[in-house]
Structures are given as C-alpha cells and as structure tokens.
Design a protein that fits this description.
This protein is mostly helical. It contains four helices and no strands.
Length: 173
C-alpha cells in the first residue's frame, strides 16, 4: 500500500493534495466585512465623499494643464471607475441583505418556539386554575362559612331566648 495523507481511516483529510491549491477564506469574516462596506455605502458620508471625489476628478481633468490630466472629457476612466464601484456595491449589498434575512429567519424561529412554549405554559396554567376551581367548589369558602355562622348564631340566640324564657317561667312558679 502507498502512503496516505491521513494516518487513520476514521479521520477526514485535513487538506487538498494536488498541484493546484485554492486559497481558503473565512465566509463569516468576509460576510462581516461586506456588511460593514454595505452599511457605509448606505450613509450620507459615502455620498458626500463620492461627490467630493467626482468634483475633484472633473476639476483636475478640466482646469489643470494637459500634462497632469489623466482622464480627458468625456471622462471615460471616471465612468469605468463608477461602473466598477457599482458592480462591487450591488453584490455586497445583496450579500449583506441575505445575511440579515438569515438572522431574521433565526430570530423568527426562536420567537415562534418561545411563543409555542408560552402557549403551552398558558394552557397548562389554565388547566391548573380550572382544577383548583373545581377543588374549591368542594371546600367551604369564606362566604359559605360566614352564611353558616350567621345561621348558627341566630339558632344559638333563639335557643338562649328559649332557655331564658323557661328559666323565667320556672322561677315564676
């Protein structure tokens, strides 16, 4: 058997073996960088700087001597630079929007799961409250005890009156 790039069969290969090795990049770092660029492209600061650069470009290439001009009218090189900037800006903005959509989707899934847990908890508590109400139906409540005490008091008072009347009747004899 020939020598292998990996020493164990249960371990994945760590790198490509071949003549051409493509550079690797961290997609997360690239995504964060693209979001920062897209955020900057959407600011007033970018518009001001872009306007200043274009004005300087046009002034440089129209008012200065021919020796130092690098892009004569109709400013083809400026058009090329603006097209290049636009061709990079659009995909960077789309990449940033896709990443934001992914974050929104994850947040929505977490909100949905949290909502489901809240609904389940609410249903559980509703069942518990219903069970407690049923249990309290069999237990004497404060109002029931007060009404029963009132009737017991009135009964005791009538018995005391009867006893007093009998005592007075027996003393009168």
């Amino acid at each position: 058997m020939g020598s292998s790039a990996r020493s164990r069969l249960d371990q994945p290969r760590t790198g490509r073996t071949g003549l051409i090795s493509l550079p690797s990049y961290d997609p997360e770092a690239f995504g964060k960088l693209s979001e920062r660029i897209a955020r900057f492209l959407g600011t007033g600061r970018f518009i001001v700087w872009m306007t200043v650069v274009i004005i300087l470009w046009v002034v440089w290439n129209t008012l200065l001597p021919d020796v130092v001009r690098f892009d004569d009218y109709p400013f083809i090189f400026l058009t090329l630079m603006l097209s290049l900037q636009a061709s990079y800006a659009a995909p960077l903005i789309l990449l940033a929007q896709n990443r934001q959509d992914n974050r929104d989707r994850v947040n929505m899934e977490q909100d949905r799961a949290r909502s489901d847990r809240t609904i389940a908890d609410t249903e559980y508590l509703t069942r518990e409250v219903a069970a407690l109400r049923q249990g309290l139906g069999e237990v004497a409540t404060r109002a029931f005890i007060a009404s029963e005490l009132g009737s017991v008091r009135s009964e005791l008072q009538s018995l005391l009156k009867e006893i007093d009347e009998r005592r007075e009747a027996s003393e009168a004899l």
